[in-house]
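REQUEST FORM: STRUCTURE PREDICTION
Request ID: SP-0412
Submitted by: Lab K.M.
Chain count: 1
Length (residues): 282
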Amino acid sequence: MDFAESIQRLGETAVSERYGNLFEMYERITGENPYKTPMRIYPAIHYTMGGLWVDYNLMSNVPGLFVIGEANFSDHGANRLGASALMQGLADGYFIIPYPIGNYLAQSKLSQVSESMPAVREALEGVQGRIDKLLSIQGQRSPDSFHRELGKLCWEHCGMARTASGLKEALKRIPELREEFWSNLRVPGTGSELNQNLEKAGRVADFLEFGELMCTDALAREESCGGHFRSEHQTPDGEAKRDDENFTYAAAWEWKGEGQAHALHKERLDFEYVKPTQRSYK
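STATUS: Completed
RESULT:
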């Protein structure tokens, strides 16, 4: 983070009046003068910006499905800062969710569930089949190596700023990486005991699907809004350029089956009282 241009334009005194406290703390920690040397700070993707609808008790529109932390929209929507994200996770987890879940379980007449039920049998067989498949590949690459490569792909092409060309490159590479994952993965150990490598492999398999969908959604949204910044869509001042006429909707992507393209469902957003406006940091 280089303030040289701002200092040249506004003067060191003006910058000090705005950020002096921050600069002083930074210099104490690093021993470097941020007025003279660029700060070693880089904007990064901060968790995942949530947005699932919840009621006052943090329950979604699916009965019994509670959504806590920044997966819901209750406190901050997409305005995700470090302290507020931490606050929402702590507040929801420690202080709020134990009470509505307890009340829901106490007031609900839940039917008995046994392993003989078809739905339970199907779920158990599906999980066991996935575990057996992950363990049987016996390839050369660890779950961590796939995780790192996928993370770098998403960081470079679907991070703080995205472009159509970069997103298309990621959408070409991720299916190739997924194919290699299911043919060249190696998970040491067994499935009959605690196996963190097996757990990680299962998560990476999900991340591959999610990463592809995230890039697909980012490519479809031809605007810059909230935490989504498409470099092709910005004002002459470098600010995010919205397109409320065409993109005032929540995108709900439907899974159509293995190897099939997801189907996009647009849920229109209506703002009756507070209208969307152009955001500017100037």
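NOTES: The two ends are 16 Å apart (CA to CA).
Reviewed by: T.R.
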